[in-house]
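yo, Lysosomal dipeptide transporter MFSD1 is done. seq:
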Amino acid sequence: MTNAIKQTLRDSKKARWTALVILSFTMFAGYMFTEVISPLKPIMERTLAMNSSDFGFITSAYGLFNVFLMMLVIVGILLDKFGIRFSTISSALIMIIGGAIKFAAFKGLIGSPDATIHIPLVDLDLTTQVFWAGFGFAVFGVGVEYAGITVSKAVAKWFKGKEIALAMGMQVAIARVGSFAPLAFGAKIANTYDVPTTILIVVVFLILGLVGFFYYNIMDRKLDAEIVVEDGAHGDDFKFSDLLVIVGNWGFWLIALLCVFFYSTVFPFYKYGPDLMVNKFGVSEDWAGFLPSLVPFGTMLLTPIFGSIYDKKGKGASIMILGAVLLIIVHGIFYLPFITSVVAAFFNVILLGIAFSLVPSAMWPSVPKIIPERQLGSAYAFIFWVQNFGLWGIPLAVGIVLDKTNPGVAEAKAAGEAINYDYQTTWTIFVVLTVLALITALLLKLEDKRKGYGLELPNIKQ
Ligand SMILES: C[C@H](NC(=O)[C@@H](N)CCCCN)C(=O)O
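structure:
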């Protein structure tokens, strides 16, 4: 009998970081597909005769099944019951199927730009082409959220007791390169080729992501052969009974509300920011998404920095308040009609990048201070579910309000007229959300004082 601690594959730095890079690559592809049409709104209006409501329907469909079919709850259970290897492959396949349907709709292989369908829930008349594009994106949205929680669990499996915060930060940073790339270069590619080809290129990345997951599973199987611990033994299994405990916690609700208000001002900005740049700041169609792409780019560098400040110095609740204040300034500036200088837009997206680094770097690591470790998995799945209400509702609301407050503009654009949308009334939606985010962040600080969660304390004991 030996006293030496048994070495496993995860004790090899090279092996665990290789696993992380492979897992992150698939998330990179997923984030890429999430934003693939974000900078293409003006091109879709000009070449496909779509209007803002069509764009809003397609982009909001991301959260449709997650919210209304409770898919985040269901995939949480699947991950719990069938484990990481099953979930990597099934989530990647769902992403590919959804991506392929969206591509087929844009290519005109399913649905038609001439046949219409009425959606009673939001009283919209859509072409069947738009309907199927949205349907595909709704399927994809289930896959990418499923992949997200699976990858978090896999990263925890490899890095527990090691550089877990750094690993999670790196994973999100690599994924965000996936938001950056299509925003920065998507419109140029779509103008050089066309919208369906741009989508197809990213579907190929999703297929490569599936291949990556297959490779990861070989490593995962090897690791499982070495350790007795099973997938389900990491304390993050989804349980309905846990949900009851979680929803009775006011602090948890404040985090979930902050998440939905905050992310609703950022992810939907990726969808409409490029169009705002064209219509308000006079940026050319080819480079519509370039300034908004600086937001995810900046977060790649800043999130780990703010995360380590929180780790060492604390002040988590104050960091979230500061992020929310910056958001009010940013969306206030986008709202004001007389600020149309591209230089102002540049500094504003930099500020948004700082806000988008501050809040998540403090918000996600604060959840374990409010929710016991045993219920953490369920808590994250539930927060993502609440977050998806915003990812569904806000892009749809923005598209509909934009059409209603700019009658005839989409048709004029499709006819080739040089005419701009007036975004001012529409942008009120973002301004209101930022104020709600600030109020929630302030209430969270109060609740922290009352309950002593320790959000203002460092994560690492000095
Ligand atoms: C970590 C966090 N992830 C999420 O919010 C996911 N629910 C949504 C992923 C959306 C993909 N564009 C994040 O990305 O900050």
